[in-house]
């Protein structure tokens, strides 16, 4: 471990929670250099929906590499890009009657968000954007301005401008419809809120603590955007690619965003890949006006196309996710109900669920014990108080239940330890 302590920046974070050297990964497991196996309920913070080294994706990639396929191509036309665009159009967009052009941005989700914000501002000629409490959209300056968490915002070093943060669904309590507040603020010329270019939101706030927007709230926000000529951006970077049960997290709400950002599990293999989907009428870029050296990751195109072809050609995979989501929901509710609402509550949607604990100290204690028992799981939320389950979507029902049994035991152990400390 000395090399990491000697050379790597102190900004590292996940390595602090999981102080091991990993050298192998397969399916839903990570293996360390000591040969210990760890069940992965983190999955690259939602990047590995199809598991580690998925065989269908790996085979396609190895075949492409063995034929000396183009690895890096800027934004030039390649057969790998054509494969991805064809699969994405025919198996994702067309069946959902969606019409978007695909912008290949830099390789991270933050790059996709930066592009989305620029599109909205350039199309409308307005600068302000509405984002929501507890939202997370990245840590580059534009995306960071739309991010709520002070831990990240404080590191900016400069003022973060041109974004107004308003309350997310449920932020003011379950009986308060915050979409009405949004409409009032926009409609009132004396509210102090400049007419926004866009509203950006996550349907489920992953890093913000698994806060779930209701379908009704999402439809209300969309209607408000249409009423006032505001573009609606859905950040589907963590909640998309099947994590909530459908490919896009907003499908069941029936909304039609103007712009959608995708990354994380889009490549399906952990390869950096991000896109911004734009309604054709808003695609007003001049050539090269927004670019990046690594917007042509052809290896990612290959694995993304393979993932779409393998998992999204039929409704079977979505139905499988729904079944596992119900197991996850049921078991987390059992854990929460056993210990009472003052200690924790289950929350989330689809395969993006967790336990909202009394405080970050309890959540951290649970996660630490989980790692000692071979389960990799992390926290999220404003105070890191939510134990968040982000296991690969391909996990078997048996493996899912085993991981949840371990989690239940770790909750028990953490609370027992807490009681013994107090006595």
Provide a descriptive summary of the structure in words.
- With 423 residues, this protein is of the alpha/beta class.
- The protein is built from 14 helices and 17 strands.
- The strands form four sheets. A seven-stranded mixed β-sheet has the order 4-12-11-10-7-5-6. A four-stranded mixed β-sheet has the order 1-2-3-15.
- The protein is globular.
- The model has no long low-confidence stretch (mean pLDDT 97).
Question: Could you name the key traits of this structure?
Answer:
14 helices, four-stranded mixed β-sheet, seven-stranded mixed β-sheet, 39% helix, alpha/beta, 17 strands, 423 residues
Short description:
This protein is of the alpha/beta class. It contains 14 helices and 17 strands.
Q: What integer value in Å does the Rg equal?
A: 21 Å
Look at the helices and sheets and give the structural class: alpha/beta
- The oligomeric status of these chains comes to single chain
Helix content: 25-40%
* CA distance, first residue to last residue: 37 Å
How are the SSEs ordered, and which strands pair?
Elements: H1 2-7, H2 14-17, E1 22-26, E2 29-32, E3 37-40, H3 43-46, H4 55-66, H5 79-93, E4 101-104, H6 109-124, E5 129-132, H7 141-145, H8 150-153, E6 163-166, H9 178-187, E7 198-201, E8 204-205, E9 211-212, H10 215-228, E10 231-235, E11 259-262, E12 275-278, H11 298-311, H12 316-339, E13 344-349, E14 352-357, H13 360-372, E15 375-376, E16 378-380, E17 386-389, H14 397-422
Parallel strand pairs: 3-15, 5-6, 5-7, 7-10, 10-11
Antiparallel strand pairs: 1-2, 2-3, 4-12, 8-9, 11-12, 13-14, 14-17, 16-17
Helix pairs in contact: 4-11, 5-11, 9-10, 12-14, 13-14
